[in-house]
TrEMBL record, chains A, B:
SUPFAM superfamilies: PLP-dependent transferases (SSF53383). GO terms for molecular function: pyridoxal phosphate binding; transaminase activity. It comes from the Archaea. Its cofactor is pyridoxal 5'-phosphate. PANTHER family: AMINOTRANSFERASE, ASPARTATE AMINOTRANSFERASE. Its EC number is 2.6.1.-. Residues 21-363 form the Aminotransferase class I/classII large domain. It is an enzyme of class 2 (transferase). Homodimer. This is Aminotransferase. Belongs to the class-I pyridoxal-phosphate-dependent aminotransferase family.
Length: 367, 367
C-alpha cells in the first residue's frame, strides 16, 4: 500500500504538545451544535424494543433512503446509505475501476489526500490535474489529461481545500470529457450545505449516467463521528455498489441512521442557514486579517477552509510547526494537498476562535 | 463481481409473504435484550457536548480498544475496531492477498456465504475444503489442498452453520500448514460467547504471527445493527489493516462504540451466561423434536444454528419454500452454504418460538 497517512494527526499531535496556547485550525470537525432533533432521536432510540437494535437493511433504513431521495429528486433505488461520505467515495471509485475501463484517475490539484490514497489502494493510478489559481475547474487541463486509460474523474464541490464552488457548466464539460473516454465522474458534495455563493448546483441536475454523487451528514449536522453518508449511483452501477457495500460493511450503524433520519425530517432550514452564516462571518474576519498580514488567499465560496500564501513562508510541515510555536495557530501544510499548493497553508474555520487566530496571524506576518 | 447475494433476504421475503403463520428461523439476529448498560450509555451519549459527536480515532475509541485488548490479553496496538465483524474479516482477508503470497483462499465447506463473496471481490480464488461430517476440522484435507498459491485460510469457530467448536490442536495444525505455504489464517470468533461445550479456546492463545482473530459485539450483546467489531492483527500486519480501514471507512460510528464500551465495562458475566443457557435449552428442545422427526443432525457445540437433514427432502430453495408453506417454519437451504450440505437445512435458534417450530417439524416429518 503506497498510501501515506494524512498529516492531520501529526500536526494535531504537535499542536497539542506545544508549550503555549495554540488555536487548532487543522481538523474539519464542526464546532457547533448538532440539530436538537438528533439528540432527541438518540434518546428515543435507546428505549426502542431490541428488534430495532438489529441489522438495518444493508443499503440503509428505507425511510432514510426515501428522505435522501426526495431531497435529491432521485429514485430511492439509486441511494446507498454508507458509513460516511468516505465509504461512499470508496464504493464509487471501486465501481469506476472494476469496469475494465482503464486504471487512471484524474484528481484535481490541490487534492483532498484521501482521494489519491483510495485510488492507490484500489490499484489505480492517480494523476493530479491543477485547477486554476482561484481554485476553479480547468476543463482544458482535464480534457488534455484524459485518455483511454482514464477510468475515473473525481471532483469535490464546494471544494476542500480551495473553497471553490464549481460552475455547473464546467462540471458538465468534465462529464462530457469523461463520457468520451468511458470514465465515471464522482462528485463529492459533502459541503453542499456550506455554499456561501448561493449558486451551487448539484451534479445530479445533469441527470447523467456517468455521474455518481456522494455526500453525507457529517458536516451539515455537525456529526463527523456518526458515519452516515450516501452515494447516488446511476442505475447501471447501483447494484454493484450495494454488493460491495454489503461485502465490506454488511450495513451501516442503525442508531446513527435512525438519529439522522429524524433530524433530517424535523430540522428547520434555519439550522443550516445559521451554520452557514457563522462560517461566512468567520471567513470575513479571517480574510480581513489575511489582508492585514499581506497574504495572498482566495475568499472561500464554500466549505470550511481558507488557503493562504505568505511571502517567503512556504507551506511545509516545518513552517506549519513554526507557526504553531511562534504564532499559536495550527494549520495544515499545503504540501499535504498534492503538488499545486506547496507554497500555501490551509486554515479550517471550524473554531470559535477564528477571529483570535486571524489577529495572531496578522500580528505575526503583518510587520 | 461474481458474488451472488446471500439467499437470506429471498427466504425472509418469501416467509413474510406467506399466507399462514410462519416461524422465522432464517436470520442470525438475537431475539433477547441487549445489556441494560448499553441502553443507559446511549441515553448518556445523547447529552454529551458536541465534541463527543465528532470523529473517533480511526482505529476506534482508545478506551474500547484497551478494554478489548485486556479481555483478549493482547497489546492494544494490535486491535482495530471495525464496522462490525464483517469489516474486520474484509480487512484481514485483504491483508492476506495484498502480500503477493498467492491468490487462493481455503474455506471450510459448509461455508458462511460472505466469505467466498469477499474473496471474489478481493480478486482471490476461493477453494472449498469439506469439514468432517460432524463439522469438525479435517486438517488432512486442508493440508492436501494447501499449495504455494494459498494466501489465506479462513476458520470460523464456534461455527456458522455447523455449530462445531474447533479443537485448538486442530487449529494449531492448520496454522502450521499455513505457515509452510506463507498463508495467513483468519479465525472469526464472533460466536465465542456462545460456546456450549465450555471448551472453546481462542486462536489468540496460539500466539502466532500468522493468525488474525476477528470478532465483535453483534451477537454477544444482541446488537447486530450497531456495527462494532474488531480485528486483532499480528504486529507485522496491523498498520496495513489500519490504513485500509481509514481509506474505506475513515472511522466507525462513535455512538455505537461509546455504548459498547460502557456495556463491556458494566455488564456482569450473568448476562452472557443467561443468553448461552437460553440457547442451550433451545438446542435441546429443537434436537429432541428432530429426533421425533427422524432427522439427522449435529447437536450444536456453539453458535446459533442447527443443520438438519430429512430423508428425501434435500436442502434446496424449493424445499425450503415448501417447508414455509406446508409446515410454517422458515430455514435456510443448505445449498446456500457451499457444496457440502446440499442435503441439509439450517435452522437459527434465535426465536422465542423455537419449541413451537420444533413441534411443527416433528409433526410434518414424523409420520
Amino acid at each position: 500500500m503506497e498510501y501515506e497517512e494524512p498529516k492531520f494527526f501529526h500536526v494535531m499531535q504537535y499542536a497539542a504538545a506545544a508549550d503555549g496556547d495554540v488555536i487548532d485550525m487543522v481538523s474539519g470537525n464542526p464546532d457547533w451544535e448538532p440539530p436538537a432533533a438528533l439528540r432527541e432521536a438518540l434518546r428515543e432510540y435507546a428505549d426502542l424494543p431490541s428488534e430495532a437494535f438489529q441489522y438495518p437493511p444493508s443499503e440503509g433504513l428505507l425511510e432514510l433512503r426515501e428522505a435522501i431521495a426526495e431531497r435529491r429528486s432521485v429514485d430511492p433505488d439509486r441511494v446507498v446509505v454508507t458509513n460516511g461520505t468516505g465509504e461512499a467515495n470508496y464504493l464509487a471509485m471501486a465501481r469506476a475501476f472494476e469496469r475494465d475501463a482503464g486504471a487512471e484517475a484524474l484528481l484535481t490539484d490541490p487534492v483532498y489526500p484521501y482521494y489519491p490514497g483510495k485510488v492507490d489502494m484500489l490499484g489505480g493510478d492517480p494523476t493530479l490535474v491543477p485547477t486554476e489559481r482561484d481554485g476553479s475547474l480547468d476543463v482544458g487541463a482535464i480534457r488534455e489529461a484524459a485518455s483511454e486509460d482514464t477510468a475515473l474523474v473525481v471532483l469535490n464541490t464546494p471544494n476542500n481545500p480551495t473553497g471553490a464552488v464549481y460552475d455547473l457548466d464546467a462540471v458538465r464539460e468534465v462529464v462530457a470529457v469523461a463520457e468520451a473516454v468511458d470514465a465515471l465522474v464522482v462528485v463529492d458534495e459533502v459541503y453542499d450545505h456550506f455554499d456561501l455563493t448561493g449558486e451551487f448546483e448539484s451534479a445530479l441536475t445533469l441527470d447523467s449516467d456517468r455521474v455518481i454523487v456522494t455526500s453525507g451528514f457529517s458536516k451539515s449536522m455537525a456529526i463527523t463521528g456518526f458515519r452516515v453518508g450516501y452515494g447516488v449511483f446511476p442505475e447501471d452501477h447501483v447494484d454493484s455498489a450495494k454488493t460491495r457495500h454489503m461485502l465490506v460493511n454488511v450495513a451501516g450503524a442503525r442508531p446513527s441512521q435512525y438519529a439522522v433520519h429524524h433530524a433530517l425530517a424535523e430540522t428547520p432550514p434555519e439550522y443550516y442557514a445559521e451554520a452557514r452564516d457563522l462560517l461566512a462571518d468567520r471567513a470575513d474576519a479571517f480574510t480581513d486579517a489575511l489582508d492585514a498580514a499581506g497574504a495572498e488567499y482566495t475568499r472561500p465560496e464554500g466549505a470550511f477552509y481558507v488557503l493562504a500564501r505568505f511571502d517567503d513562508f512556504p507551506g511545509t510541515m516545518a513552517n506549519v510547526k513554526r507557526l504553531v510555536d511562534e504564532a499559536g495557530v495550527a494549520g495544515m501544510p499545503g504540501e499535504a494537498f498534492g503538488t499545486a499548493r506547496d507554497e500555501w497553508i490551509r486554515f479550517a474555520l471550524v473554531t470559535p476562535r477564528t477571529e483570535a487566530a486571524a489577529e495572531r496571524l496578522a500580528d505575526y506576518f503583518g510587520d
